[in-house]
Amino acid sequence: GTFPHGIDILTAADYFAVGNRVNCYLTISVYIAGFPEYTQPMIDHLVDMKINHWDSVIRELATKALHNITPQAPEYMANVVLPRLLPLSVGSDLHTRHGAILACAEITHALCKLAQENNRSVTYYFSEKSLEGLKQIHQELCSRQLYRGLGGELMRPAVCTLIEKLSLSKMPFRGDPVIGGWQWLINDSLRHLTLVSSAARQHIKESAVSALAALCNEFYINERGEADPALQDELVTQYVAELQNAEEMIRCGFSRALGALPRFLLKGRLQQVLEGLRKVTVISPEDVSFAESRRDALIAIAKVCQTVGVKGDGSQEEYVCRDNVDQIYGTLLTGVTDYTTDSRGDVGGWVREAAMSSLMEVTLLLVQKEAELLSANVCKQIMCWLAQQAAEKIDKFRAHAGSVFLTLLHFDHPPVPHIPHREELERIFPRSEAETLNWNAAAEAFPRITRLLGLPAFRYHVLLGLSVSVGGLTETTLRYSAQSLFDYMKRIQADGSALESFCGTLLRVFEDNLRNERVSVPLLTMLDQMLANGCFDMFTEQENHPFPVKLFSLCKEEIRRSKDIRKLRSSIGVFCGLIQFQGDMREKVFFQLFLLLCHPFPVVRKTTASQLYETLLTFGEVLEPAVTEQVMAILSDTNWEAELPVVRERRNCLCDLMKVPRPQLVPK
């Protein structure tokens, strides 16, 4: 009995419950403050000790706790706490100022919600002095230049949060000059993103965009539900113009800002906004590394579509409709092909991830409103690109693609139309396993995704994705993707037409990606493994089968004038694998390998000799018995890293023994 409600409190605030900081501040504190003896002391503790804490996370949690506790002591909050916080919000100590601004925002919002729930005026709990104090915070910080420097990294998102909460609270500030000041701060914060640390950038951007949405919805709409034409023109034109700013972060900020605009500001300006965002997604030589701005533009396009809604026969200036749906999908599908890399790695992955999410959001929007706007061709492209991403090597993006793929496949309110091979897909990916399938795990993902090779609509894209995985460098991805591919190849060995069809698609993938290092190098590695695993044994007995002939010409073209060691070494394995095929091509393969035996790079010469030796051991019948021993001796005993004239003489001996024309030096 020493502590009031001690047993109840100990039960709620046990050792494990208080171990979670968020739970402690947002749930347990509210429960304990519910006992009258603890309400005021809890509030005082948060205000006196926690909103000025050195850790910003604690400060933010403390202000949210104050929001949650406000309904238990609204009068105390309004008459004692808020007047105490207002001077602190413009004080000299940075941490206290930051915490006090956020606390003012949270308490004000909670008081206004409480007043509205009780059918009272939103200003019921506020004195004139408090309302004036809330308006003065931004002006005071601005006049003292407290938005600059490192302090500004804390002040900007804090005041943007204040703007958002005051707007959501429906404060009676319509027409007040403070609105212009708030709009200036939001715009300036979006332009300021290049000047802040990367850690603060995302926080400032999200706070400013949230504040903009709330500000517009509350203060820029008239009684008829429309925007002031002059204000709309100024805001939209200014934001679209900033999308072509030379600074990437400014493009990011204004892309997201356009995505947050309410419908009444987009009405009549939809094409201007969509075209501005589309231009941000286009890769040009000057902004090839601007992956973050392309990502944010794609996210914004989906947000804009969701905001304006769908109306098939509506105006393209107001709705997603027949006249603009193809343009929207064209932009989003282009994003899935972004494979830009720089010093940060595969930055195009951010763009592809955003494009996949946006495709899903726009597609589900159309399906639920007017499914006839979704054409069979577009639906096929979406599913095929998702299947390709789900077969690729980076776990995070593969998992995201797989999740989006299954969401679209199993959506049934109503079902997405025109999905190719729907019945087969539902057998491969049953609805019961959609939640449990771990796309991050190569051992689970690849055995499923390779089954799509048997579906003609998906074969090309899945094979393209698999090429990068099977020929990649990550051991687990390589092992499981290769094993799944070889298992599939074993299943179709007896089916001539299936194998021919597969090989035709494989050659098309190679031809479409000639000199595209991202695909062609791992593709050569994959082909080397497939030839070594006997995936094309059915064709080895056929004279001059078109598959090896075409494959040889593509490999030859791929390495022409190449100085890429990895590509050259991968091609050697393919050329050696082609020796097993019958016909006139075999002499050309040997000629190509003999060229590589005198390559300017010693490592290429050595690798060629080593792999050719192993291949001839395996397929000894390709040599005449009389010369076999000499050929093998030259390949094994020669120092292929010696000077070129010495190496060339030994190579020419091989040519003579095997009756292959000697390569001739081309005069420069």
TrEMBL record:
Residues 380-567 form the Tubulin-folding cofactor D C-terminal domain. It holds the Pfam family TFCD_C. GO terms for cellular component: lateral plasma membrane. InterPro entries: ARM-like, ARM-type_fold, TBCD, TBCD_C. It comes from the Eukaryota. GO terms for molecular function: beta-tubulin binding; GTPase activator activity. Belongs to the TBCD family. This is Tubulin-specific chaperone D. It comes from Climacteris rufus (rufous treecreeper).
